[in-house]
Amino acid sequence: MTKPLTILDIARLAGVGKSTVSRVLNNDARVKDSTRAKVQAVIDQHDFLPSKSARAMRAQRSGVVGVIVAKLSSNSENTALTGLLNTLYARGYDAAIMETQFSQQKAQGHLDVLKRRNVDGIIFFGFSGCDLSALAPFAPHCVVLAIDSNDYASVSYDNQGAVTQVMTHFYAQGLRHIHFLGIDEHDETTGRARAHAYHSFCERHQLPAVCIAAK
Asked: How many CA atoms lie within 13 A of 120 on its CB side?
C-alpha cells in the first residue's frame, strides 16, 4: 500500500518550504502567484488532501460542533436536526450528537465532554428547567433552540402564535367543539404556552375548553 503524501512531501516535490505549502492550503495572500501555481500543480498531480486533524491543528479548531437535543425520538427535533446536519456537513463540520432526556445532569455531563473535546461550537435544544448558564464556557459560539435567551443567540418557536393560528382556522370552518391534546403544563416551553393560547382563544370566543395532556 502506498503511503499517503504529507505536507513535507509536497514541499519537497515543489521545491519550497513546508510553511509555504501550508500557506497555499490556507489561501494565504502573501504567497506569490508563481509559487502558488507551482505548489498547486504538485498538489493536483498527486491528488493531495490534507487530513482533517492537520487542518484543524493549523486552524486551531476541531472541526466538530456539539449538538445536544432533548429527545432523539421527538419528530420536531429530528426535523430540525436533519436541516442542521445538512448545513454543518456542507461547511465541512462533523457533529457530535447527544441527548439530555430532559435531564440537567445529563446536559452538564455532555457539555463537560464537549468542552474537553474543544468543539468549535454548541447547538443546544433547550427544555424546561435547564440551566443555560452552563453554556457560558462556549459563548459566543453557541445557539439555543426551542427557548428564548437573553445571554445567547436563540431560536424559539412561536408556540402561542401557532396555536392561535390553528384555532382561528378551525373556528373559521365553523367548528365550535375543539379539543386540545398537549403535554403536561409543567413544560413551560411547549405545554404551558400552547395550553394557555388554547384556553385564551376559547375564552375570547366563548367556546367549551377540553384540554387533554398526553402521557
From this structure: 15
Residues 130-159 have pLDDT tens digits of 889 999 999 889 999 988 888 999 998 888
Q: Are residues 78 and 141 in the same domain?
A: yes
Q: Return mean pLDDT, the chain.
A: 87
Residue 24's pLDDT is what? 84
State whether residue 73 is helix, strand or coil: coil
Domain at 137, CATH number:
3.40.50.2300
Q: How far apart are CA 76 and CA 39, in angstroms?
A: 48
Identify each DSSP E strand in 48-184 by its residue range: 64-69, 94-99, 121-125, 142-145, 153-155, 179-182
Q: Considering the chain, what percentage of its residues have pLDDT values greater than 70?
A: 91
Query: Which CATH number belongs to the domain containing residue 40 in this structure?
Result: 1.10.260.40
What's the domain range around 112? Answer: 64-155
pTM to 2 decimal places: 0.63
CA angle 84, 129, 98 (to 5 degrees): 35
Of 12, 8, 4, 2, nearest in space to 38 by CA: 12
